[in-house]
Automatic annotation (TrEMBL):
One of its GO terms (molecular function) is lipoyl(octanoyl) transferase activity. This is lipoyl(octanoyl) transferase. Its EC number is 2.3.1.181. Pfam families: LplA-B_cat (PF21948). The keyword Acyltransferase applies. Keywords: Acyltransferase, Transferase. Residues 1-45 are annotated as: Disordered. It comes from Urochloa decumbens. HAMAP family: LipB (MF_00013).
Length: 365
């Protein structure tokens, strides 16, 4: 992904203008409200897990070492391929959940009416779709984002765009390229790629998404935050830096002239966005327990002289190779990221499990 950011976000539909820093442009708490799970957040200090968060079926949150549990709680499941039918069957009604058809499209005539929970005073509401332990195919997640953006652009002129959106998920292995990516950064023939390859409308160069990587797609109207793309980029980086420090005691930083978040000379998180009429989407990818091997097939973000790292890799190095509980690491990373995201952007998160990908497929036809 690219190396510099220049200029503010311009409104109005225009041809995509290439911006360094992964920007392609077409044209501000009270305690975080949690509906997803009850329980405590574990933390890792100096490579050792101090506390495991209680599950719905736990009576307490027992202490445990940074080791896989031989009898993991039934509430935890390893990331599995996304199943729209299963998601609908397993979705539990949650207080304040806004049910909408097509995951952000207009409600269907048969949709059960439900009013959105009012946002906390001084906070803009943000609907949060928590799929952080599920695999969602890239093409479907991309179409989902586009459908939400299209709907919200339609609300701008009447000043009815009252809520932002946050989607958290994982992807099966996939390479994505920005709108003007240089294919010289691929170490394989695009027609005979090891995984799916998608060229999309974000800025920046090629990157990899796969299991163990926490992907977060904020869809924000910058009119309600700050109309400054560089500020938005730096803010996303700050969310990651704070989350790594608070949850794992990992000291991360920025690198002058580059985007993303770094630990030493290893990039642990990549960023890329696109904007239309000051509504920005795409977002960030944080390597939690990611297999880093597929990065060897590309020059990630067009950078040849630096490496890629993960939270798991860093913690194992600090703990002399001790094994980690991958599911727990992902849960802790997610909890810390959404907490810092809500704090920095001054948002009132309303978490929803109702992600209707079947309706999205219909809209694509």
């Amino acid at each position: 992904m690219s190396r510099q950011a220049k200029g503010p976000l311009h409104g109005g539909p225009q041809p995509i203008s290439r911006r360094p820093n992964n920007i392609a442009v077409a044209s501000a708490p009270p305690p975080l409200r949690r509906h997803r799970r009850a329980g405590e957040q574990g933390a890792i200090k100096g490579g050792h897990l101090l506390q495991r968060r209680a599950c719905d079926c736990d009576d307490a949150a027992p202490a445990m070492a940074l080791l896989p549990s031989p009898t993991s709680c039934l509430c935890h499941h390893r990331a599995a391929p996304f199943s729209p039918a299963a998601a609908s069957a397993q979705a539990r009604p949650r207080r304040g959940t806004l049910r909408v058809a097509a995951a952000g499209a207009r409600s269907s005539p048969t949709a059960a009416p439900m009013e959105a929970r009012p946002a906390a005073v001084g906070r803009r509401r943000c609907e949060c779709f928590d799929l952080h332990q599920q695999m969602v195919p890239y093409a479907e997640a991309y179409a989902w984002q586009k459908s939400i953006v299209k709907r919200r652009i339609g609300l701008l002129d009447s000043s009815r765009d009252h809520s932002d959106t946050l989607i958290a998920l994982q992807h099966p292995p996939v390479y994505t390229l920005g709108s003007d990516s240089n294919e010289d950064y691929l170490h394989f023939n695009k027609e005979d790629a090891p995984f799916e390859v998608h060229q999309i409308d974000r800025g920046g160069e090629v990157t990899y998404h796969g299991p163990g990587q926490l992907v977060m797609y904020p869809i924000l109207n910058l009119r309600y935050h700050k109309v400054d793309v560089r500020w938005y980029f730096r803010s996303l980086e700050e969310v990651i830096i704070r989350a790594l420090k608070s949850a794992f005691s990992i000291k991360a930083s920025r690198v002058e002239g580059l985007t993303g978040v770094w630990v030493g000379d290893q990039k642990v998180a990549a960023l890329g966005i696109h904007g239309s009429r000051m509504i920005v989407y795409h977002g960030l990818a944080l390597n939690v327990t990611t297999d880093l091997t597929p990065f060897q097939m590309i020059d990630p973000c067009g950078i040849k002289d630096r490496g890629v790292g993960s939270i798991k890799q860093i913690l194992q190095k600090e703990s002399q190779g001790r094994e980690t509980d991958d599911i727990l690491l992902m849960d802790i990373a997610y909890d810390s990221m959404v907490k810092e995201f809500a704090e920095l952007f001054q948002l009132d998160l309303d978490t929803s499990p109702d992600c209707n990908f079947q309706e999205i497929r219909k809209l694509q036809r």
